[in-house]
TrEMBL record:
<feature type="domain" description="Methyltransferase type 11">
    <location>
        <begin position="52"/>
        <end position="129"/>
    </location>
</feature>
<protein>
    <recommendedName>
        <fullName>Methyltransferase type 11 domain-containing protein</fullName>
    </recommendedName>
</protein>
<dbReference type="GO" id="GO:0008757">
    <property type="term" value="F:S-adenosylmethionine-dependent methyltransferase activity"/>
</dbReference>
<dbReference type="InterPro" id="IPR029063">
    <property type="entry name" value="SAM-dependent_MTases_sf"/>
</dbReference>
<dbReference type="InterPro" id="IPR013216">
    <property type="entry name" value="Methyltransf_11"/>
</dbReference>
<dbReference type="Pfam" id="PF08241">
    <property type="entry name" value="Methyltransf_11"/>
</dbReference>
Length: 205
């Protein structure tokens, strides 16, 4: 989803998630392609019903999870959510405005490589949630890194180099921080059925 450009068109007139008008149906259908795929992959790792969505963006995952019966709070450096009623709390990009252990699970999906200080975001998520589920763009070789970078730029309409890390880099970071690595896996998929992506999913407590 081209967050930085397309979503700004909806700032004044957000659409209704699963609304009956044509625009709402198109937007909901589009974002649900990714949201459903993401949910199917992370569902078994979600603990509890009180969730924090770090880096809400378009808001597709937040609205999808809300529909599934979860109580979702969103956090982002700007409110660019496409849907009416999306719960987005704007913050400074560094300090999460929540007390320790405020949530049962925090989700950070395709967000960390967009952050100015990804480690700080991860540390804050760990502080406010009992469990953190992360999905990050990754790569196994230089060629794959190039393909992932191009797909990410096209998908988000952000034409600059993002700081990607290998799965092993993330594993080492978790170990260095002394966090419990509940699960880790890497996989490839076609995002929105046409953009190639290589991802690492890991769960920490």
């Amino acid at each position: 989803m081209p967050i930085s450009s397309v979503t700004k068109l909806f700032r004044k007139n957000k659409v209704i998630y699963e609304g009956k008008d044509l625009l709402s149906r198109i937007v909901t259908g589009y974002v649900d392609i990714k949201s459903k795929t993401t949910f199917d992959r992370i569902a078994k790792f979600i603990k509890g019903k009180k969730l924090l969505d770090v880096g809400v963006g378009a808001g597709g995952i937040s609205k999808f999870l809300t529909k599934k019966g979860f109580f979702v709070s969103g956090l982002d450096i700007a409110d660019v959510a496409l849907f009416e009623g999306t719960n987005v709390r704007v913050y400074n990009g560094s300090d999460f405005p929540f007390k320790d252990n405020s949530f049962e699970t925090a989700l950070i999906v395709h967000v960390l490589h967009h952050c100015a200080d990804s480690l700080r975001v991860l540390e804050e998520a760990k502080r406010v949630a009992n469990r953190v589920i992360i999905i990050e763009d990754t790569y196994r070789n230089i060629f794959e890194k190039l393909i992932v970078s191009i797909s990410d730029c096209l998908g988000n309409w952000e034409f600059y180099i993002h700081p990607y890390h290998t799965a092993e880099w993330w594993r080492n970071l978790v170990a260095k921080k002394g966090w419990n690595l509940v699960h880790m896996e890497s996989y490839s998929e076609l995002t929105y059925n046409y953009l190639y992506g290589r991802y690492v999913l890991f769960v920490i407590e």
